[in-house]
Amino acid sequence: MNRLEVTEKIISTKVAKGIKWSDVAEKVGLSKEWVTAGCLGQMTFDTKQAKVIGKIFGLTADEIKWLQVVPYKGSLPSQVPTDPLIYRWYEIVSVYGTTIKELIHEEFGDGIMSAIDFSMDIVRQPDPKGDRVNVVLSGKFLPYKQY
Question: What is the dihedral of CA 119, 123, 127, 129, to 10 degrees?
Answer without folding.
Answer: 90
